[in-house]
Design goal:
330 residues; alpha/beta; binds phosphoric acid mono(formamide)ester; binds norvaline
Length: 330
């Protein structure tokens, strides 16, 4: 019997396959209820705080809408409008917020900060992204993959690009836990952290799947069901790094040709936001400096029928609602 009450959601490796299965099934049920307009305001009188050291569209909106749908109150705080970071430490902020709120979401830089929030606040804390991982994203992605293929077991996901970033790390851990084959495909200078990679390989071995890495795109995408990519430079990394990353990651761009080498019904996934055209200021800036019109994915693939990126975005809300519910219910 799965019981996640009072537990924080800090990283995928903290959870068993059974617990992750429970969260996915709960998310499916919440999605059904939402579509049917069925009552699920289970938490009137409960309040949550959302702390953002980095910007967000999806994660913030997903937490806010999920909380409103559950009948809860929500406070949004960022570093410009609060004492966090400048005048007050994470440990002190945690002890204050823990006295007022039933749960706290945190998006920031250090994984140790979200761990400290959980340690000092005394209430469930949910990781909305750190430099190390993005565990609510991986949950939404797995709901999306299950919706498309019916199962994740035995399927193959290839992450192309910056394979040591937060999104890669959570997907790799999720694949290992849930029995999905995973390939990190990128230059060896950006390969996943060795310790995490080894840990995921050991878990995968027990669960009948594999975790591997390669620099070779053609080899990686053979028989792949999911091609996944993410931005080449993540939030918090310096602008000066763009040139190096473009040189390193150009050949890992997800193009039509790359999609064609995967399974015929393969899907394209991306956590978003994505640089697939020139409709963003950063995209135009990069175009001016380096001449690129699209980066980690071509616009053709992003807009193709294989692309499920907006399903993933929607599923952020249903899965986050499941995490809030499972950890706060009485
Ligand atoms: N995918 C994701 O976390 O998006 P946001 O940065 O907009 O929250
Ligand atoms: N790797 C990206 C993910 C954004 C959702 C970043 O950290 O900026």
């Amino acid at each position: 019997m799965v019981d996640l009450r009072k537990k924080s959601y800090l990283k995928i490796l903290d959870f068993t396959e059974e617990e992750l299965r429970y969260l996915l099934d709960l998310a499916k049920e919440f999605k059904r209820k939402k579509k049917k307009g069925e009552f699920h305001k289970y938490f009137p009188g409960k309040n949550i705080a959302l702390l953002f050291e980095k910007t967000s569209t999806r994660t913030r909106c997903a937490f806010e809408v999920a909380a409103y749908d559950l009948g809860m109150g929500v406070t949004y705080l960022d570093t410009s409008g609060s004492q966090l970071g400048k005048k007050e430490s994470v440990a002190d902020t945690a002890r204050v917020l823990g006295r007022m709120y039933d749960g706290i979401e945190f998006r920031g830089f250090k994984q140790s900060d979200v761990e400290d929030l959980a340690k000092y606040s005394g209430v469930p804390v949910w990781n909305g992204l750190t430099d190390y991982c993005h565990p609510t994203q991986a949950l939404a992605d797995f709901l999306t993959i299950e919706e498309k293929f019916g199962t994740v077991k035995g399927k193959k996901l290839v992450f192309l690009g910056d394979t040591r970033n937060n999104v890669n790390n959570s997907l790799m851990a999720m694949c290992a836990k849930m029995g999905m084959n995973f390939v990190a495909c990128g230059p060896d200078s950006l390969w996943p952290d060795e310790e995490l990679f080894k840990e995921c390989q050991e878990i995968a071995l027990k669960n009948g799947c594999t975790i591997s890495r390669t620099q070779n795109v053609d080899e990686a995408v053979q028989n792949a069901d999911v091609l996944y990519t993410d931005v080449w430079v993540s939030m918090g990394e310096p602008d000066e790094i763009w040139q190096t990353r473009i040189n390193l990651l150009n050949k890992y761009q997800v193009t039509k040709e790359v999609m064609n080498k995967a399974n015929p019904n393969a899907i394209f996934m991306h956590a978003l936001p994505s640089f697939h055209d020139l409709n963003t200021s950063i995209g135009r800036d990069i175009h001016e400096k380096y001449g690129l019109t699209e980066m980690e994915v071509t616009n053709e693939v992003f807009e193709s029928d294989a692309s499920v990126v907006f399903d993933e975005a929607e599923n952020r809300m249903h899965t986050i609602k499941a995490v809030i519910y499972a950890t706060l219910k009485n």
